[in-house]
Amino acid sequence: MAKSSQVFRIFLAEDNAADVVLVREALDRHSISYELMAYPNAQAAILAAERCGSDGYPAPNLMLVDLNLPWGHGCNVLEAASKNPVLNSVRKAILSSFVGSPSDVETARRLGATSFIMKPANLEEFLDDVGRQLAHLLESSEAASS
User: Under 8 Å CB-to-CB from 95, ≥6 apart: which residues?
Assistant: First the structure.
């Protein structure tokens, strides 16, 4: 990714604190300047998605959503985002340990997810692969907003 002075705002719906740390490490490894807004459950992420653009909740440059969340499902978060016009042009990606059922994939796509990133079990693969994919998504997000 070309060095950018932009600080990317990243919305992360993820219940596993270790995976939140790994996402931070992957972003750092790829020299991405970011502000990470992490939500540990579907309920908190849905509320944040509904509030984006108001009440001091800035719109993110990228939304990353795990499918398996406490108190809901990742598709519930995407559904809330799809109802907020501020989030219409925001890139959305599923970041999960498993792909999910075909109906989960279809629903996520219908609700705006354009990418599906698998969480590798290997630490180095996670940092390299996930970081590279996030860099690509943010780079294309930056180009689209220019």
Answer: 12, 14, 19, 23, 64, 65, 66, 117, 119, 130
Task: Tell me the C-alpha distance between 39 and 69, whole Å.
Answer: 10
**DSSP-based helix, strand, coil % in the chain, nearest 5:** 45, 20, 30
pLDDT band at 36 (very low <50, low <70, confident <90, very high): very high
* Domain extent listing, the chain: 12-141
- DSSP lists the bridge partners of residue 56 as none
Q: pTM of the full predicted structure? A: 0.92
Return the CATH superfamily for domain 12-141.
Answer: Response regulator (3.40.50.2300)
Task: Indicate the DSSP class of residue 60.
Answer: P
> Are the beta carbons of 57 and 86 closer than 8 angstroms?
no
